[in-house]
From TrEMBL:
CC annotations in GO: membrane
Region of interest (Disordered), ranges: 72-94
Topology term for the membrane: Single-pass membrane protein
Protein name as annotated: Late embryogenesis abundant protein LEA-2 subgroup domain-containing protein
InterPro entries given in the database record: LEA_2, NDR1-like
Compartmental location: Membrane
Record field: transmembrane: 134-160
Domain Late embryogenesis abundant protein LEA-2 subgroup: 196-301
Any one Gene Ontology BP term: defense response to other organism
Alphabetic keyword roster: Membrane, Transmembrane, Transmembrane helix
Any matching Pfam family: LEA_2
PANTHER family cross-referenced by the UniProt entry: LATE EMBRYOGENESIS ABUNDANT (LEA) HYDROXYPROLINE-RICH GLYCOPROTEIN FAMILY, LATE EMBRYOGENESIS ABUNDANT PROTEIN LEA-2 SUBGROUP DOMAIN-CONTAINING PROTEIN
Amino acid sequence: MVTSSGMYQCASITTDSVARTFLMSQIDSHARREEQERPMMNDGRVHPAATSSDFSGEYAYSSSDPSSSPLYSFHFEKPVPPPPQHQNKPQPGTYVVQVPKDKVFRVPPPENARLFQHYTRRAKRRAGCSCLRACLYLAVALLSLAVLLAAAVGAVYLAFKPRQPAYTVVSLAVSGLAGVGNASAPGALSPGFAATVRADNSANGKVGVHYDGAGSRVAVSYEGVSLADGAWPAFYQAPGNITVFVAKAKGTGIRFSERERGQMAAAERLRSVPFDVDITVPVRLQLGGLRTWAVPVTVRCAMAVDRLAASAKMVSRSCDVKVPFLFWRN
């Protein structure tokens, strides 16, 4: 005997199976319809249509009261777009350049590096050539200048034929050394000398001589001990002229040792007191209308006088003249 509850349970199971079967058939038919609507590409592949929408179905069934609601229901929803990602915007006035890794080139390219090395070597060669050329030009210029100078000197020598003047110390007056050998003589002496010098320029018929007093020096010494200093007077000596002048020298606070005092007193008794006179004077030559630059002329005279007085007479003398002019001969 079948009860009413058992019949109702059987009917419910049968209805549930029928609803599930119907739902599956609807889903299959909907899927076949979408496949038919998809466009076919040339390569035979099927792609979804651009306007297709997602399908989602919900099955609603109430087992408690099947007559109160439909057996199934469907609704369609469009896909929700993903939320926008916040990107770091560049500051105003700046630019961001993104380059793919496969587009990054080497800086400089290899061919540019080779060209740079080539141009660098060529520039060095050119610089070396330029330096060598400049040195060559300088050497040629100096050689040309030397040739011109030698030619000018030769022309001057042939035109004027300069000769070295002769210098002689005629006399040497001595003062301040009287009684130097006496024991009563003062300890500090102030000797004075007046040298009479004869400058003979008679050998030069076309060359005049300018003597500059500034920078000149006349020094008198005894046995290496400096006694007095003075200056050469400034004057001009015309061509063919003989000039006699006096060069004075004065010393102060000169002290002799006992040995030097004895030697000087003994030399005076022998009437031969030796002195050395050193003269240095700047000289300029007058060659017609041209005056040369100043060159120093050095005169060294070794002489001896018979007494230590103003009336002393020359016993012996010997003078040596040194002039830097190569062509100024005796």
